[in-house]
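Internal QA ticket QA-208
Title: Verify multi-chain structure generation after dependency bump
Assignee: T.L.

Test input:
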Amino acid sequence: MATTELTDHELIATHRPTLDQALEAVRTRAYWSPHPEHAKAYGENGSLSVADGKAAFDALLGTRLDLGQPGTDDWVGGEVSPYGIELGVTYPHADVDVLLPAMRAGQAAWRDAGPELRAAVCLEILGRIGDRTHELAHAVMHTSGQAYLMAFQAGGPHAQDRGLEAVAYAYFEQVRTPATAEWTKPQGKRDPLVLTKEFKPVPRGIALLIGCNTFPTWNGYPGLFASLATGNAVLVKPHPRAVLPLALTVRIAREVLTEAGFDPNLVALAAERPGEGIARTLAVRPEIRIIDYTGSTAFGDWLEANARQAQVYTEKAGVNTVLVESTDDYRGMLANLAFSLSLYSGQMCTTPQNLLIPRDGITTNEGPKTYDEVVAGLAKAVDALLGDDTRANALLGAIVNPDVKARLEAAAGLGEVAFASREIAHPDFPEAVVRTPVIVKLDGAKPDDEAAYMSECFGPVSFAVAVDSAADAADLLRRTIREKGAMTVAAYTTSQDVERDVEEVCLEEAAQLSLNLTGGVYVNQTAAFSDFHGSGGNPAANAALCDGAFVANRFRVVEVRRQA
Amino acid sequence: MATTELTDHELIATHRPTLDQALEAVRTRAYWSPHPEHAKAYGENGSLSVADGKAAFDALLGTRLDLGQPGTDDWVGGEVSPYGIELGVTYPHADVDVLLPAMRAGQAAWRDAGPELRAAVCLEILGRIGDRTHELAHAVMHTSGQAYLMAFQAGGPHAQDRGLEAVAYAYFEQVRTPATAEWTKPQGKRDPLVLTKEFKPVPRGIALLIGCNTFPTWNGYPGLFASLATGNAVLVKPHPRAVLPLALTVRIAREVLTEAGFDPNLVALAAERPGEGIARTLAVRPEIRIIDYTGSTAFGDWLEANARQAQVYTEKAGVNTVLVESTDDYRGMLANLAFSLSLYSGQMCTTPQNLLIPRDGITTNEGPKTYDEVVAGLAKAVDALLGDDTRANALLGAIVNPDVKARLEAAAGLGEVAFASREIAHPDFPEAVVRTPVIVKLDGAKPDDEAAYMSECFGPVSFAVAVDSAADAADLLRRTIREKGAMTVAAYTTSQDVERDVEEVCLEEAAQLSLNLTGGVYVNQTAAFSDFHGSGGNPAANAALCDGAFVANRFRVVEVRRQA
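Actual output:
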């Protein structure tokens, strides 16, 4: 490729060490990340500083983001930040009958580039994204409603980690089979049979990424990079309220592909008009052979049932449980839980919803505590955490959309309110809807309460469910995972028997379990290269981030064998 | 496990070297097999000799094969050999409401055994199967109609190879993630965050193997062992005409599981009454979370659409093509093709059906050959191969069922017959239906002929399709793979351009390609540990034997993390 600005050799030389470290990290699952999570680590070596990131974001407002895509028949937009500002950015609207064929044009060259060069190009894209982390952080903040620090960390380095992790898995999976082999089968006294064999990973076709509102990059990058690294073109269909982070991502990907001598149309954006619902149309196009989706159970189930021509990876709703039985660090437990319930106003797929607490109370290092005392203690811990408005704003972020606000307000009517949600004013964004969580007492023995705690109530709503015993809690945990799915389970217990019972439930129902977290790690956070996000084995998600199954079926291996 | 006859240590010590060799073979894809394919290699070290295998099979005839399964409510059978004899063996018929719960009872212990011990138990099962290879060969012969040598090789060592390959892939996939990890995240001047993590592979549930008539063991073992090695219980539902080989397999598996201290009900048989069609009922049971199926496209499509609670792996029908453009070994090509068309009367999913030959002829090392000359040459080669009845019987085997015979007879009316099928008498089995293949000339430019060559005509029927050019052939090849699927593609060409074009079609449509085979390797044969069987990327099959994707989603990994 004489005309490329980035030579294949340079790309591989630059990124191979990082790829190797990622491969080693997923093998050991020790802590590792190449992406700094301190805001001030940015601003040198071509990366945007905090201030430059803000300026870059401000410069985008009110502009047309022209990606140079073929088949653009309109310009669409309309994002309004949960913090109140109108972004005013417009994006290309695609005539998919033009765009999809254009996306296929460069696929043979991308396929022939092979796994290592594809991985290097993906890492170059991630590197450029990393340089613009602070710009993307503002884009994530003003589409998801996350507070800035979280938008920066979760939308920046942590999302990039998950993208890199997917590239590492994809690379490994493709090179498990050698590119060539000689096969010699002895035939006794006759000459052996000899074949030369070539094995080539081939893409499935065009992948469709259907983005979500709350974590457009964190939930989007794994599928995007897994598909691209395995040779597929990727069409990115963002959530209509969270277009900008993925549009910027697509822009960077197209720039890098061009510089590396590949067709930029291997990655394209499909923005839509309000209410157009193009995901439903795109998902069943014959060109679309892979779909990654994060969002509602209803649409996830629809995709699984209808997009039969595609491999479909879904993350849907679930009901996350915390079982509280006993602890040797009562204050640590309450503080840890308070943080988990408050972070991003509980608008995480991993936020605990149901806290199962024995009605006869629990044992702690501070003596026995009644159910009421535990709930009051948790309320107090939340209040302490969020008592200061500046700190509350930095933790809570804004309510992402009116549906969440409505659910929050309705939750207070579901039972006795142990901690009432309160409004918090945002000094910079007066229109932002900022609310502390609500904690509602329910009774696991009352059939009327079951409808509440057995449904996902996405947002800052937690139910303190009184249960008869730890065994009763384990049964309810099992039923909840089996029927509703769970992205996370947590438990607090000093009893080996209870621990074993909870662990057995999680093993049998395939849910990820965090035990006795009382410090600075929270049940709703997972670390790339070490923790699995979801299990793929219960109704909350049909795939985990990230494992072999997440990448292995995004490509196929074609063998060409010749008589030697 | 004090009461086991086989200790865990013994099992692992015995089988770990073989597992390691299998892991190395799938990595290099060089020739390897631990299972001898010479009949006389058996008879020592506990394996049945040819004569003892025959005696063991004869002793089974007319008996009840009691597997000691719970929930047995009837005894069913009725297999009649394609060679004419009634087997008279009866098998347990299951009350699945009793059997399925019983199969779950031992799953936690099997899960907790871990990947290495499970692999060792699977290899012990395969070893015991290997010892009874000659008994199983008769069972395969008298259910599939394969000739003895093929029933022995394909149904014995080659099937065992594919089972072992699946165990190796399953083992590797499960141990990619370590059992434990310590995760330490620096926090600047503060203490680091430290977690200890456990990662455990957990099964999906009960796997259902739906066996086929023609290769009950070869097509059955990969799914059976992939599911068992990943911790699932396996319910084996054989084809009603080919129960015995899989029933014997289940019996051996149950014996080994018992001796190793596990619940024998982890593997069970579901035989059925004539016309009962239990696969349709079993496939949608909520306990069934994995299905492996080989058979018709109609039922495979039904499974994919309806068994939504399960991971479904299907091998369905396809139309296999040979593109003949030029050769530097004309006789070798004709002899190789003649063998491929004749082996097991073309009743292989990998047998070529459409031979695409330019109407203006081809170039060869014996000078140019017209279309008619090539077809006549092939007919002559088939005649030479099958002219001797003893040799013909040894190659062809028997027609497996009346449908195949009917298709064979109807094929003669589809076009000009270049080689007429003839009846061959079998000296030992006068009732066996033995037929040589039919070769019918068709014209790729005639719309009337298209219906014939664009449908799968399973059995000893080949179409010599006249095409306009090599480019025309490549187009037809592409259309055939895309619309009908293909397990195999072969091409004969000395032109680099044609080779590149055919290769590009196979890469884009995901089909496995054999080039210029003129010796002792045939397009319809694949070798475990080296060749992929199917690609999983075209309509003939949604999975390949065997790759990471075949095993990675049969289990999930559950993580338990604790604050250190």
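Spot checks passed. Chain B has 19 helices and 21 strands.
Status: verified.
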